[in-house]
Amino acid sequence: MADERSETPMTTDSHTIREPPRLLIPIEVLEGESISASLVEFLAPAEVVLLGYHDLPEQTPTEQASMQYEEKARTAIDDIADSFRGAGGKVETRIAFTHDRDQTVDRVAAEESVTGLLLPNPVGEIEEVIVPIRGAIDVDRLADLVATLLEDGSRRVTLWGLAEEGDEFDAEAAVEYTRNTLSERGLPDDQVSTEVSVAESPVWDIIERSSEFDVIVMGEGGPGLLASLFGDPSERIAEGAVAPVIVVRNR
Amino acid sequence: MGTSDEAGGQNRAGDEPEEASTSGDGETTVTEEGSELERSIGLTGGLSIGIGTMIGAGIFVFPGLAAGDAGPAAAASFAIGAVIALLVALPASELATAMPKSGGGYYYISRALGTLPGAVVGISIWLGLVFATAFYLVSFGSYAAALLSEAGVNVAGLPIVGTLALLFGVVLTVVNLVGTENAAKLQNYVVGLLLTILVVFLSYGGLDVLGVFGSESTPEQFLPFGVMPVFTTAALVFTSYLGFAQVATVAGDIKDPGRNLPLAMVGSVLTVAVLYVATIFVATSAFGSGRLATFGETAMVEVARAFVGDAGAMAILLGGLLATVSSANASVLSTSRAVFAVSKDALLPTMASRVNLQYGTPHIALSMAGGPVLVLVAFGRVEVLAEVASFLHLVMYGLMCVALIAMRRDEPEWYDPDFQVPAHRAVAGTGAVASFGLIAFMQRESQIIGVAIMIAAAGWYKYYAGDVRLKGAL
After folding, report:
1. Chain B contact probe: residue of A24, A49, A53, A62 with most B CBs at under 10 A
2. What are B315-344's pLDDT values in tens digits?
3. Does residue A31 register a pLDDT over 90?
4. Which of A219, B205, B295, B391 counts the highest number of beta carbons within 10 A?
5. Could you tell me if B40 and B260 are in contact, meaning their C-beta atoms sit under 8 angstroms apart?
6. How far is Cα B96 from Cα A227, in angstroms, rounded to an integer?
7. What is the residue range of B230's domain?
8. pLDDT digit string, tens, across residues B232-284
9. Nearest to A59 among B27, B35, B361 (CB)
10. Helix (H, G, I), strand (E, B), or coil: what is residue A218?
């Protein structure tokens, strides 16, 4: 599915998107989690897969929970799907009962070959998007995503390169490369600003600045000791930040 | 019963059997409405359920009791148990890979042999697990009391074992009612720790007995009481092998069930069997069976003290606490699943499969596990609890073997197991005969209680759900 799409570039107006972005939105649907109207409107240009999941205690067999909650979960996720359709978006829905949320999200992300994953947080009007760049990131996917979401011209994106002290990572070059790729995808230069800083702890720096922006778009980050101890950086950021986080998946 | 392949009929409350899930692959089951049910337990998790349920009884409770009854030949009793367990584990594995659903033995028997045997097994396995849980809790009480007296608390003359067991039974039930997130992971570590303690201890003890350190001990007569006690002891200690079928009760949650279910069931039986036989060998060599018997349920603590001193005694005490807790907890969870499987088929009020709105746990099924356990704990006789639990499980095991033969004969269209028992007639036939045969060696009291429970289960079925049809319905 994904391959077909990437082989047939879609041309709209002036810019070329290589691979139309496809976002997975996991929603803990029976906990009343939802997606605000402004976020729906912001995400609607992308294809969306809504995953309504219910994370069960170990005592409860998934089958048992599904017998009781399936209809309720379906109604709730269909309501959210309708709001995306109302905003002109393409949307698919899935329901899952699980004992392991991460396993389910990873599996569905792979099956649907999504380019990104939304970690929801409350948000108001969306005007400013920040893209912290801390290392290897799939710039093609990132650029497709950002260019698509910002295509109506009313929003701005800040590319923020973060290098750690003594790090080999050339933040400046990465930011420049991203800016060029965005421009190739047809995003006008005046919607993009860039900055670079040296960070002691990128995760904390990003969380601290999150209040200045409305949405964070970032890469997955590789596996590492810290990640296995504290969880993925993106998840830690989503936990601490006041903005929703879109994680661009590595290929 | 009818020959239709649809579950049907109504119980007294007007409920029909629910058919929830239909298709799926190694990672999920998909319900008729298209919802996905994630399978989240891997091979390690499956092994840990099997070993965690079994190891508590065989190592930490029975050595003293068994040696008192059969002498060093108690090792042979454990070996007999292992052979029977393996003969049942193989057919159970095949059935489980053909029907990887929660409910285990009850499910296979009701589908292969019909509703009456299914109902009798379903209800008696619920109570069988209740007896097993009570047995584990009383054993926990013995270890907790031993720990207290080790710590210098004077508890002479108080009914301390029963009190501690009751208290802990309440704690366990409440914890499960509230729901846990990471208890399964914790269980994996606990089982790992237990295996480590045991392997170190048994290797040391084994080498010591063989004369590597110090002097070789003179072996006592292998069969001091003759052959008969070997079989009655096998019937008693069979409770140490009840855990492997608990893996099948969570079959709906196991990843890649075609591979992992047989490996987990057979692997856990083999693992504990080796440890049990080695334990009896070391324990009887250390003390002689007569002396060992006087130590009762916590005999292993004294064995460890003899080999490694007080540190060893503490390690085994800790091990005994962990092992009995993990057995009791695994059994409570299996009980709740067994109740769910039966009530889903409308053989018990469907109320029992309700999920609590606040905690998200199946509170009624869990209470039906925890509540009767407390009553039995108060009753408190370890050997009868253990034998009744074994009795009810053995009936299910024997019928599972019969179910396998019936399935292979009928070969319904949907019957497509990933794992096939070689020489299935011989294996399952012997398994059935051995399972039913072992029951004959139990105490009269246990046999009477077991038969009474089965008759009551059949009566309940006739009264409550006589019209329900399950045979052949996947």
Report:
1. A62
2. 899 999 999 999 999 899 889 999 999 998
3. no
4. B391
5. no
6. 37
7. 39-465
8. 999 989 999 998 888 888 888 899 988 999 999 999 999 999 999 999 888 88
9. B361
10. strand
Question: Domain count of chain B?
Answer: 1
Q: Tell me which amino acid residue B170 is.
A: V
pTM, 2 dp: 0.86
The answer as to whether B3 is a domain residue is no
Tell whether B21 is covered by a domain. Answer: no
Residue type, B271: T
Q: Is residue B25 part of a domain?
A: no
* Residues in chain A closer than 8 A to B21 (CB atoms): 63, 66
**Cα distance from N-terminal residue to C-terminal residue, chain B:** 16
Q: At what angle do helices B444-465 and B382-410 cross, to 10 degrees?
A: 50
> What is the model's pLDDT at position B218?
56
At which residue do the structure tokens 């701005």 appear? Answer: A156
Residue with tokens 């454990």: B78
CATH number of the CATH domain containing B165: 1.20.1740.10
Q: Is residue B299 assigned to a domain?
A: yes
> Is the distance from CB of A69 to CB of A54 less than 8 angstroms?
yes
pLDDT at B303 over 70: yes
Task: Please state, as a whole number, how many other Cβ atoms lie within 10 Å of the Cβ of residue B230.
Answer: 23
| Confidence category of residue B19, pLDDT binned at 50, 70, 90 | low
Q: Give the DSSP H/E element, type plus range, for residue B446.
A: helix B444-465
Interchain contact B28–A (C-beta under 8 A): yes
Taking CA atoms, B455 is separated from A39, B318, B466, in Å, by 62, 40, 15
Question: Going by DSSP bridges, is the β-strand pair A128-133/B21-24 parallel, antiparallel, or unpaired?
Answer: unpaired
CB contact under 8 Å between B20 and A66, yes or no, is: yes
Tokens 């399972």 belong to B435
Question: Which one-letter amino acid corresponds to residue B195?
Answer: L
Q: Which pLDDT band holds residue B77 (cuts at 50, 70, 90)?
A: very high
